[in-house]
Each structure stands twice: as structure tokens, then as C-alpha cells.
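Rotation project, supervised by the postdoc (A.L.). Task for the rotation student: set up a whole-complex structure prediction and record inputs and outputs verbatim in this book. Inputs entered:
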Amino acid sequence: MHKYKIADLVFTLNCIYSFTPKLCANYEYFGETLPETEISITNEDIEKEVSLSVERPKEYLECIAVYRKLCEYIFKHKNGMLIHSSAVVYNGKAYLFSAPSGTGKSTHASLWLKLLGDKAYVINDDKPIIRLIDGKFYVYGTPWSGKHKKDVNTRAEISAICFINQAKEDTIRVASVKEIFPLLLNQTVRFSEITETDKLFGLIEKLLTSVKLFRLSCTPNLSAAELAVRVMTGEYNES
Amino acid sequence: MKVKEGFVLRKVATTYAVVATGKRVKEFNGVITLNETGAFLWKILEKGASKDELVSALLSEYEVAKDVAEKDVSAFVEKVVSAKIVE
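Outputs recorded:
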């Protein structure tokens, strides 16, 4: 059976359709480490996705079910979670842009690449996994990377999380934990059990007090990235 | 009025959050953030209290003018009533 390594978790995959193994091809693992778990999908899991989502092909729903199980495992055993975002890595540090679907996360991330060229890349354009390891938060590329399929199978330490909204002018400011917390909660997977909720809140609390937080109102123009890069990295020089 | 069963208050860094747990998640999937005063009022509301009782509690806990306390309580009550998390 094929082994995969996503977010530094080695596992085997037991799927019904071939769609997910194909999607995960770049994450296949050929090393010696034994799989820690198996992610196994049943028709029941797919039916559950049908009830949660709109009508989609079953192979696609299976793919979502795999991601859900992966996130659950990583949350329970690995101090990790999903943050629905587009994550850019520049000079080795990651910058996460989050917002509800359709706001322009990917658009803004692509502007960073346009501005910074080879020095930057998108580690994941839609559903990266983040993990807390030895007191530091890392973002990992995953094959679930949105319609543009932009992801890199690596990790980077998170420098900042930025929530974006569309605007006619570009403005950016430092944001508070109080402000970001409810926004972030809407862009991750929630749990109904109180023990899991407490664990999630504990992880989010550590995250929000460990990384820089921003709110960006932005146009879809390069000027938005010029502003965001300058303020968020403190490194970019326009000249 | 009283907090419905299944809603809990949690402190996250400098802020307070009210979320649903268990079966309540189906009817309320959001989060309500509260400041320290809001969290104080919430704890009283967990046992049940009238609006006047909330104002009295606020006045005995914090050094605040009565009209300010009434305003704070009104804003808080409006928040929890409109979110349908009290009964």
C-alpha cells in the first residue's frame, strides 16, 4: 500500500476512487518511517459529505472526506489544524491570507509573487494545515490547494496571519486577538464536543499570541501587495 | 432570563467567547465575543437574572455610574437576545 506524508504525518490511504491518490501523488512517501495511521474511507463517509455539501461527484466528496479525516487526526494527535487561507512564503517565512471564499485570497497571494518574483512562492492556495511544533507554528503545503492547484510539499514558519476584505483603496493595520479570533474560527473546522472545542481554543490562543496579526482592505491591484509586503515583512524596499 | 443549556463561555487570550456545544451547534454555529464586563454579566446570566439584577450586579462589582451600567447591560442583553442564546 502506498504511503503518504502530509504535514509531517506518514499514513496510508484506503480509498474507493482513484481521484484522491492521484491528487496526493506529490505527497507520496518512499522513506523508511512506518505509517502512523491509515485514513480509510467508507461509503458512509461519502454519504456524510453529501449531507454537508452540495451535489458533487462522489470521488470529489471522497477527497473532501479524506481531508476532513486527516485534519481530525492532526488536530487530535499533532497539535494542528486547518486554516482556510492562501499562504505565501517569502524569505523562509510564511504569511497567511484568510477570508471567506470569493474575497480574493488567491488574487492577493498571486500579487505577492508578481512583486517578489522567485523569492516567494505559494505553499498552499486554499487549505494548508498548520502545526505547533516545539513552540513554533508552521504552515504545511497540502494537495488540497484550491482551483489553481498551487501547493508545495514543504513547511515554513508562520510570521503573520492577515484577514482581508475587498475595498476601493488599500489600507492595512495591526489587528487584535479579539478581532481575529471570531474571524479565524469561521475559517477552520469546529467541533461540537466541549473537550475538543477547548483544545481548539487553546491552540488558537497560542497561535494568535505567537504570530503577527493584520487586517488588510485591498484592491486587486499590485499596489495592495506593495503595501502589504512592506508592512507585514518590514523588508521590502520599493526601489 | 437565563443562558440556554449548551452554551459556554471561554477565555481566549484577552477576549471572551461564547460558543455552542453538543446539539446546540446545529442551531448556533457562530461565536459571540464578549469583553470582561460581558463575561461578568454572562456568568450571572448562567444562573438566571433580570435586567435590573444585572445592573445591580454590575454596580456592586465595578465602580461605574448607574446610567453607564444600564447602557452596558442593555447592549449586552440585546446581543444575547438577538443571538437567541438566552431563554
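Student's summary: The two ends of chain A are 53 Å apart (CA to CA).
Supervisor addendum: The helical segments of chain A are 19-23, 43-52, 58-78, 105-116, 177-185, 194-210, 222-233.
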